[in-house]
Write a structure and sequence with these properties.
2 copies of one chain form a homodimer. By secondary structure, the first copy, chain A, is an alpha/beta fold. Chain A has 2 domains: about 120 residues, Nucleotidyltransferase, domain 5, CATH 3.30.420.40; about 170 residues, 2-Layer Sandwich (Nucleotidyltransferase, domain 5), CATH 3.30.420.40. The first copy, chain A, is built from 10 helices and 12 strands. In chain A, strands 3-2-1-4-7 form a 5-stranded mixed sheet. In chain A, strand 8 and strand 9 form a beta hairpin. Chain A is globular. At the A-B interface, strand 9, helix 7 and helix 9 of A face strand 9, helix 7 and helix 9 of B.
C-alpha cells in the first residue's frame, strides 16, 4: 500500500512556533509547540519538520504562516513585526534549503482563511471574508473559491481600516484603526483605563489581578462579571462596525471570525452581529452569514498546509 | 457596407435623464438631457431611445444606470432613493417591452467603473476600485478584468463604510458613514455650519450666496477663496481616509475617482492622495495608483452601454 501524502503546517507568532502534521484531508495528526527565536528559527523549523516527517508517510510540502505582509510575486516577507529585515528577505530560500521541502510562506490570516474555507466553517461557500482577531487584527478574502490576495499579496488588512478619524495612534502609523480598539492588547488597555478612572468598576474581579490578559477578560465575562461583560460587548460593537464596512464594500456571502478574541464565543459574536445589522445596508446584511470559525487554534497550520498542497 | 452596431446608454438620477448614443468603441455620438419623473419614465426612455436610434446604425442594447442597489440575479432594483417600490420592481420588464431592446439595469457606480475600465482611466488595468463622489458616494470593484458585484449585486458601497463610530446619522440608517462628510450635500452642510458659527469665515465669498452648492465651493476654491479651499481640502482628507481603507482591504492596482465632487481637480485629488498615503500601509499604498476618471459626466452612460454590450 502506498504511503499517504502528508503535509506540514506551521505558524510562527512572536516567541512561539506551532507546527502540525496534517493529512491530505486537513486532519491534524500531530501537534508541536515550541519557543522560537528569529535567529535560530530556520534550524528549528527544519528540525521540527524532520521530526514530524519521521512519523511515516511522505511529506510533500511545508506551509508557513506568519504575521506580516508577504509579496506573492517574490515570496519575500515585506513587513513583519516579529522578524528582522535580513531574516525576512531570505526566509523562503533558507526554509526551502534547510527542510528540502517545497515551502509556501503565507500571511497568517490568509492561511487561516484558506483552512476555514477548505475544511472549516467556510466549506461549501464561494465568497468569504475572514477576520482573525487576536494580538492584531488580520483578514483575508476568498472570491470564487480562491484566495484573493490583491495586486502584491497584501489584501485583507481589515484591522487597519479607519473606524475613527480622530482615534488613537496605531502601530501601523495610521490613527483610529479597528485594531486600536478591538485587538486583544487593546481590550486590556481599554479595561485598564476604565478600571483606573471609574470607581464603579472596582466591583469587577479584574481589578484584583494587575496583569490580566484579554483571555482573563473573556473568562470573567463568562463567569458573569458585569464589567468584563461590558468590555467584551463593546469590543464586539467595534468589530461589528468593521464587519458592516466589509459587508457594504464586498456584499460577501460569509464572514468567518477567528483568532483568540473569538474564544469568548457567543458573548462576543452576538454583539458583533447586532452592530453589523445596525450599520450595514439591510439587503447586504441579509445576504451575509456571520459565523465563528470552527478550526480554533489549528486554523493557521491547517490552512498553510492546504495552501502549500494546492500551490503545487 | 454593413451598418455599425450602436448602443444606448442612459443615466437616471433624481429629476434628470442623461442619454447617449454610443458606438462600439465607447465614443459618444450624441447626448440628450431631459427632466424626468418616475411615473412617466418608461415612456420617456422609450421615446428618447427611439429618437437616438433613428440617427442610423443598428442599436443592439440599452444600458440603464441608476442610483441604488440592483439584484444581479433577478434584475430587480432593490433600493433606490429616487424610485417608488412599484416602479422599481418591474422596471427591467417594462423598459424591455417599451423599447424593444435588450436592457441592462446597473447601479450607477458599477456602470461608471466599467466605463472607465473599458475606455477611460482604467484601460489596461486588471484590478480597479472606482469611487463616485457626487450627491451620494458610490463605488464599484473590478477584479481580474470583470465587474465584481458580490453575492447579490451590491458590492462597492464605499460611501457607507463607517469612518467615525460617533459620527452623524446617514440616510442609510448607519452613523458616521463616509458619505455623511464627503458627498456634495455634506460639503454644503459643513460649509454652512462653519460660516454660521465662525466669524473669520465671513471673509469668504461663499457667505454672499445663501444657496450655494458644492460646485460653488469648488469654484470659489479655484478662485483662491481660503475658506472654500479649506472645505475642499478637508473633504479630500475624508475621502482619502476611505481610500486608505480600500487600499488596506483590497491591495488594489488602481483607484479611480469620479463624480461631480472631483470636478475640483487637483485641489481635491492632492489632499486625497496625501491622506491615503498617511493612513494606508506603505507597501499597499505604493502598489496603488490613485487617479481621477477621464470620462467625466459620460462615465455612467458610456459604462452602462458597454455593460449592455458585453452582457450579450
Amino acid at each position: 500500500m502506498a504511503k499517504s501524502s502528508l503535509l506540514i503546517g506551521m505558524h510562527f507568532s512572536g516567541p512561539k512556533l506551532l507546527a502540525a502534521l496534517i493529512n491530505d484531508s486537513g486532519e491534524v495528526l500531530e501537534r508541536r509547540e515550541a519557543a522560537i527565536s528569529p535567529n535560530t528559527m530556520v534550524q528549528q523549523v527544519a528540525t521540527t519538520a524532520r521530526e514530524l516527517g519521521s512519523r511515516g508517510g511522505d511529506v510533500s510540502a511545508l506551509g508557513f504562516g506568519i504575521p506580516g505582509l508577504v509579496n506573492r510575486q517574490t515570496d519575500v516577507v515585506i513587513v513583519s513585526p516579529d522578524l528582522p529585515t535580513g531574516i525576512r528577505e531570505n526566509l523562503h530560500k533558507e526554509l526551502t534549503e534547510a527542510t528540502g521541502l517545497r515551502v509556501e510562506i503565507e500571511n497568517d490570516a490568509n492561511a487561516a482563511a484558506y483552512g476555514e474555507f477548505k475544511v472549516g466553517a467556510g466549506r461549501g461557500s464561494h465568497n468569504i471574508f475572514y477576520m482573525m482577531i487576536g494580538n492584531g487584527i488580520g483578514g483575508a478574502i476568498i472570491l470564487d473559491g480562491k484566495l484573493w490576495t490583491g495586486t502584491s499579496g497584501f489584501a485583507g488588512e481589515v484591522g487597519h481600516i479607519t473606524i475613527d478619524t480622530e482615534g488613537m495612534q496605531c502601530v501601523c502609523g495610521n490613527t483610529g484603526c479597528l485594531e486600536t480598539v478591538a485587538s486583544a492588547p487593546s481590550i486590556v488597555r481599554r479595561a485598564r483605563e476604565r478600571l483606573h478612572r471609574d470607581s464603579t468598576s472596582s466591583l469587577s474581579r479584574l481589578g484584583l489581578n494587575k496583569d490580566f490578559t484579554a483571555d482573563d477578560v473573556a473568562h470573567e465575562a463568562k463567569e458573569g462579571d458585569d464589567f468584563a461583560l461590558m468590555m467584551i460587548e463593546r469590543t464586539g460593537k467595534y468589530i461589528g462596525t468593521g464587519v458592516a464596512s466589509v459587508i457594504n464594500l464586498l456584499n460577501i456571502e460569509k464572514i468567518i471570525l477567528g483568532g483568540g478574541v473569538m474564544d469568548a464565543g457567543s458573548l462576543i459574536l452576538n454583539p458583533i452581529i447586532q452592530e453589523a445589522r445596525r450599520r450595514a445596508f439591510q439587503p447586504c446584511f441579509e445576504a451575509t452569514q456571520i459565523v465563528a470559525g470552527t478550526l480554533g487554534r489549528d486554523a493557521i497550520t491547517v490552512g498553510a498546509a492546504m495552501l502549500a498542497r494546492d500551490a503545487a
